[in-house]
Each structure stands twice: as structure tokens, then as C-alpha cells.
Batch of 4 targets.
Target 1
Amino acid sequence: MPCPPYDPSSPDGATGPFHNPVPGNGIPDLAKRYRIPARQGCAVRMKAGQTLTLYNPKGNQVCDFFALTDGSESEFLSMEHCRTALGRIYVQQSDVLVTNRRRSLVEIVEDSSAGVHDILIACCDQHRYQQLGAQGYHDNCADNFRRSLLAIGLQAKHVPSPFNIWMNIPVSESGAFTWEPPVSRPGDYIRLKALADAVFVMSACPQDMTPVNGIGVQPAELEFHVD
């Protein structure tokens, strides 16, 4: 049978209700600290010049971070364009991250961690978990992205590769890479500045079939505030 037409805005499934922590319009209360439950996501509207501080309370949790240009959601934070702009496969404090139109969208203002993040790996999705041997539906970052946007009245037009905050993917001289636990610590944070009106989307990655969220621990919550 032919595959049904692909709809990038439609989640592949769900294991339970989805609760976006910010109001339905996506506009946060400034300085209020919000919690993103383990395995879920959140979309928040950012004005140019505002900063979002993202916290890793347990230290082991990866965040798949996406950003879209508010009002023109076909323009999005693009890791392939960021690699070209930066000339490297790792990010660091003060880097400016760009869109698929090569325009500046996000600045890494501050990073309390060791600075180990990833801009190579696609977000997890239902097909990835099937390849890893999962039976039935598994929570995933692609669906967290879609459901977070739907919660504030937007539809995903594409699922970009994310900025994988605190994800540890070492690359060898041969070009091979491995999946390793984070080196971040409890309470680490990263501050991200919106350089244009944007929608920031964060997913507390549900990956529990590789070590990227730590060994012997479960995926955990994230926290953030906007100022």
C-alpha cells in the first residue's frame, strides 16, 4: 500500500495529555520560572532582545531546542546553516545561530556548563525508536515540537534538526561519532537571546534507549524563565 501523504504538523502519536506550561498565546510572564515535565515540550513567543534562561535541574537532561521566526514560520533555526556560518561543528558562548535564510536569530549569551552541546544529530522521532527496538509508540522530540506549536495555535511546516543543548556526541578524527552521557551538572543553565521576534520550542528529550540522557537515570524535567 502507498504511504499516506506526509503532514509535518501532525504528531505520530501520544502517550498522554499535553500541557504547555505557558498561556495559550505562548507569551510568558516575565521572570516567572516555568517547568517543562520530563518527556514533554514547550513553545514560547519571544520578542527581539528578550533572553530565555534554560535550566538543567538534575544535570543529566538534554534539551532539543528549536526556533522559528514569529509570523514567518517557514524560516527556522537551521543547524546546517549554523555549521557553515560558524565554520565548526561545536558551539560556544557568544556564538550567533542563524536561520535557513542565513539570518541571525539566536545568540548564546551565557553558558554555565562545560559547553558540550550538539548541532549534528536530528531530533528523535517515532521511526528512530522503532529502529532502536521500541514496541509501540514512544514519546519523542519531533512530536513534542509539533504538539508544542499546536498548543499555541501554530502548525509545524517542517521539523528542523535542533540545537541539542547538553547533548554529548564526540566526533573522532575519522569522522565517527558516539552517543555519550551529558557532562553537564545539576543546576547548569544556558541563556539564549532572541535577535528577532521568534518562537522558541524546547523538548525535554525522552531518549531512554541510548545514554544521551545519562546512564542508570530516567529523562528529567527542565526549567526556564524569560526576561
Target 2
Amino acid sequence: MTAALITETVKLRRSRMWWITLLGFTVAGAVGTLFMYIGQDPGRARKLGLLGDKAQLATITADWPGHLALLGQISSIGGVGIFGVLIIWIFGREFSDHTVKDLLALPTSRTAIVLAKFTVAAGWSAVLTLYLCGLGIAGGAILDLPGWSAGAATHGLGRLVAAAGMTLLLTFPFALAASAGRGYLAAVGALFGAVFSAQIVAALGYGAYFPWSVPALYTGVTGPDGQHAGWWSPITVAAVGVVAVGATVRWWRRADQTG
């Protein structure tokens, strides 16, 4: 397991994927800060050409609770794409680069290889989440947003981290899709399908029962009068992640790796 972890870490470090995902979260933090800047003074934003006359951003609450809640919503929606691409790359590259046979010839169990890939993906995703938290705090401090308190920060950052964690778990099935599809294409299709389905199911009012809609509902993306995640919703999200890991391990152990 240690050798597999080192190998997967080196692969990520020497790839472009780590800075691409880092750039994605940098943009997410910048967008959150921009929205708060607009919310502070919509008139100023319009003069600078940042806000159109019919834009809805003028109603945003420019304070610390609103800022952290917005970052949580951004992480729950955009995180599916960023974490999903990371998972798909980690598993799909072995087939696209035709290195899977060489990998499986090493004196390391297939279970250890799969678990190492999930561990590295989870570890880097945690770093990205903490990075977004740091960007959010820095952006709010620069704008001198009102409403700061230890309780508000703990609540807002806690929900952001929880939403990111649930989002990460929901990307684990894409590892199975990348493995069974022997590359990126099937997994990318599964990613798009999950995102599209989450929007449709939430619009129909059943988002609390559909795991891929839960993180966004948890962060209050539908507003105080909209849908909310039920107490059972995080359980379904955790179940998806656990089942996906088990199914991926089983596939790697049993599949005939000839490609």
C-alpha cells in the first residue's frame, strides 16, 4: 500500500492535473469574492461594467455568512466537475496511456492500487477544499465584510467542508466508469449524466432523494424557501461512495486486464 501511495502521489505531482484543479478552485474563490464585491455596492459595480441592469446579483447579501454560504454552494456545484475530472484522470489514464498491464505486473495487490488511487484523490481534494477556505477568508478580509464571528466562521466553513466531502464521495462512481470503460469517455459521459440528472430531479422537487442533488441543497442553493436536504440525504451520499469504492475494487480484482 505504501509503494502504491507513493507511486500515485508522484504521478499526480508530475502531471498537469494538480495545477489545473488548483486553477479551478482559484477561479471559484475569485468568483465568490467578485460576487461579494458586487453585493457591497451594486451601483459601483454597474459603473465598472461588472453588473447588467437585469442581473440578479444585486440582491446578494454581502457579509461573512453570505460569503461563506456562497463558497459552499460554488464548491458543491463546481466541485462535481473538478473532483470528477480528477477521479476520472487518476483511473482512466492507466487505460488511455496503456500502462495498466505494467501496473498490474508489479508485486502490489490490485486492491492496494485502487485504494491508493482513491486515497490520493481524496487527499488532494481535501487540500483543494482547504485552499478554497483560505481564499474565502482572504477575500472577505480584503473586502472588509461585516458579520464576522467565530461562530459564523465555524458554521460557514464547516458547511463548505461538509459539502465538498459529500461532493467528493459522489464522484467515486466515475472511477468505476473509467475502469469499466477502459478510459475517459464513459466516465465523462457518466459525469455529465449525473450533473444533468441532478438539475432535473431537483427541479421536480425530489432533490433530497437523489444523492447528486444533495450537496447543493445542503448549502442552501435553493434559498430559505426552497428544497432542503433531509436527515437521510447524507446517508445516501455516503452509501454511494462506499458502494462505488467496493465495486471498483471488485472490478479491478476480477476483470481480465488485456488492454
Target 3
Amino acid sequence: MQNQTSPLILTFGATDPVGATGIQADLASFAAMGCHGLSSITALLIADSARVEDMQPVDADWVADQARVVLEDMAVAAIKIGAVGSIESAAAIAEIVSDYPDLPLVLDPFVSALPEREDGDDMLGAIRELLVPQTTLLLLSAVELTRLAETWREPSDDDMTAVDAMHLVDTGCEYVLITGTGGDAQEICNMLFDGTGLLREDRWPRLAGPFSGAGSTLSATIAAMLANGMEVPEAVIEAQEFTHAALSAAQRLGMGKLTPDRYFWVREPGDESD
């Protein structure tokens, strides 16, 4: 029997026909980092390169069973959670990850392109109460942070980024990475918080988009870095560098948004065959 050498990562998420987000994007990012991806599908998307038209959640028992069989068979080095699909699946996933408290867990729960759900507030409440406290790193955009924060506070016109991030840390989440904070037309700012407050702030040149899958690439790459044994602050900066490069090489696969090229590094300079 051969020894397994590539770190294994289990990802929970939706399938995207385009491969820009969700399970397909995670597997590509894991592979780019030398990891092997395992998956539990939480939902099926109907989508093209321009938009997500609809989502069909997978039965929560199926979500749990997909994960349990691989976790009982293989030694997983990290877990990533994307779109959970339903409140029932959020609860099932929370129960599963509670059995593996020593594994790094990256949570990136928003699919911002999806239409608003009738149970949207309840879904966010379930994620905040069941999954966030078990999370090693939570990734949210500034807009997503505000949306999540409205499940525990009244809307505010003030900049509540630091206050809201620290609230999530106080619930048990070790690190919170907020993307797209402040900045201007020329740059974007990403902020990493832990129990001590603002740990680091990284600024990147703003690239012409629009993109689909930037956040998925970032969170999956962080999970892969953690699976490879890297500490969270170092994983965050390395993953940002990789994501920026993937976005710089993004491809227009259809008539809609640009898709990050997670294999930019294997292409010869000047190779425009794609």
C-alpha cells in the first residue's frame, strides 16, 4: 500500500457548472497547492458565467453521509465550508466538524450571487451560532460582514467593521478575515482580526473585473496552506498573493464575469493559446 503524501482537505459546498465558485473551484485551488480535495456536495447550482439563476439544496442526510464515509476512511488535514445549502445541512455539518476539533476549519459561507432566500436570516443565524464558534478562520467581504452582523444588531451608518469582527472572535472564531474594506478606486484593503484585535492589514491594487470566484479561491487556498502546516497569519498573506495572481491572469470563459486562473503558474510566459 502506497503512503499518502498529498494533504487531504474536505470541502462542503455547492457545485458550480462553470467551475468559478464552489466545489469545483475548491478542488482546483487545492490541487494548485499540492493538496487532494475531498467533497461533500450541499447544493446544485444552475449558473453560467454571468449569474447564478437557482440553487437546489441536497438533503442534509446526504450531506452528512458524504462527509462521514470519507472522514472514517481517510486522514484529513483541514476542512473548508462554503455554501451550506440549508439550515438542516448547517446543523449536520456543525455536528460533524465538532467531532474533529483539532482540524483547521475555514468557513466561507456566502454565495453572494444567489438570490435572497426567504429563510435567509434564519440561515445566517444558524451559521453564526453553529459554525462560527468552531471556525479557525472566517472569511467575509465587508458587505457580507454587515449582512451577518444584522442578525445580532441594528443597522448602522457607522463603520462597524472592527466591532463586528471582534464580536465574531468573541463567539469562539479564532481569526476573521474581512475583504474589500475601505480602500479606493485604485486599491482594496483586507483586514485580519484575532483575539488581540486587528492583526494585519494588506492592500492590493484593484484589478479590472468583474470576477466570479475570487473569494472561493482565497478561502480554499488558505485551507490548503493550513493543511500544509502553515500558521494562519502566514497562510493569509500567501493565499492573498496567490489569489491576486490568479485574478491577474483571469480568463473570460463565456460572456459574463472573469474566472480566476488557478493554474497561471504552469503556463509559459507569453502563452496565449487559451
Target 4
Amino acid sequence: MQVIDLNCDLGESFGPFKIGNDQEVLNYISSANIACGYHAGDHNVMFETVRLAKKSGVLIGAHPGLPDLAGFGRREMIISPQEVYHLVVYQIGALAAVCKANGIALAHVKPHGALYNMSAKNRKMAAAIAAAIADVDPAQVLFGLAGSELVKAGKEKGLHVAEEVFADRTYQADGTLTSRQEKNAIIHDSDSAIKRVIRMIKEGKVETVDGTDINIKADTICVHGDEPLALEFVTQLKQALVQENISLRKSWGNP
């Protein structure tokens, strides 16, 4: 039986503004990436989401982003590697403290949005993120885009790295994600997205926007919690994984 991690970005509500169906989605995933207050989330939402994830038996990860609430962390910024290091340390520390107060350990770190995409290509930024994790807690797993500079930087730093693929995003020929500014960035057809996921897991391949296949390593699959049909999609995806004899990961120490 194959084993895969299924992760979702959660805790992205802010004050009175509710985003996603966190409590329901937690029933179908194995890892939760919880926003740390920079691109989304706040102290109250962080506490509530950690408690929900703990109750659901889901692994908890920090989801640090750029300081851009208005843009949901999806707008690129001119930012130095040193500042990247500082803001990642700050956000990991915040969520780690919330986890400690709730009697549960932080399991992984996954950068969010523009920070994630920029570090997939920019080696200095990737190295800053890897250094931040290593300096705070080298036991934490780094989630990075499969084959990216972030993955390479994490491995060089000696971190346990999980190579991530996306269920609902299209890929460019170089293995990067299609920009959200493009019309074909998101896959809206659930059946098509699920078939792609199964192929990435079982064959290690994905079709790019130009119709060619590229090799890809899938340790963890991302589904987006802020999408309108997130709950419906993650339910269907988990059912498909079960049918394909693929089980969800319980920890990063052992499957």
C-alpha cells in the first residue's frame, strides 16, 4: 500500500471574516498548514484552528507568508533574504507557542503564496527559509514545491523535506506552478484534478500546460481550503485515494 500526505491551508479567517470550512475539511486530511497572522489568520483563529486540528488527530504545520493581509500573501514583494529569515522565524515561533499552550508539537513548515513561489525559484530566499527552520527546530519537516530551489535548500541544510504537488493547479514545463494571473492556473474539474493526483503518486509524472509530461515527486498533496468547493473536492479526493489503495500518512517518522 502506498502512503501519501494530504495537506490543506487552514486558519485563514481573520477577525469577523470567515474563510473556508476548516472544521469539516479536517476530517479528510492528514496535515494542516495554519496561517500565522501575516497573510491571514490572527491569534484567536490560530488557537481555534490548532485545537480543531489536535482534536481531529491531524499533523500541524506553520504556514508563514508575506506581511500582506490585503493581498492574502499572493503578491510578490521586494524583500531581502535576511528579512525573509526574520519573518519566517517570527511566524514559526508564534504558532509553535500556540501549539505548546495546547499540548501538541509543531510538525512542519510550509511557506504560503508568493513567499512559497518566490522561494521555489530564488535560491537565496529558499536558503533563508531553510535556515529559519533549522535554527528554530531542525526536526520540523519543510514542505516545498517538488524539485524546487526550496527543496534543494532544505536538503542542503539537513532538513527532512517533503516534496509537494498540487491537486488543483497547472504546471509549467520547468516544474513551476502556472501564475494565478493566468486563466489556466486553476483546474476546476474535480475528476480531471483527481486523475492527475493519482498519476503523480503512482507514475511520478504530470502533464504540463504545453502538453508534455515531466517527472515529479509527490510526498504531500495540497488542496486549497479557501476555494468555494474545497470540502466537496477533498472528500472526493480522499475517496479516490482509498479506492486506489493509497493511505494517508499518520506521522513523518513512520507511515
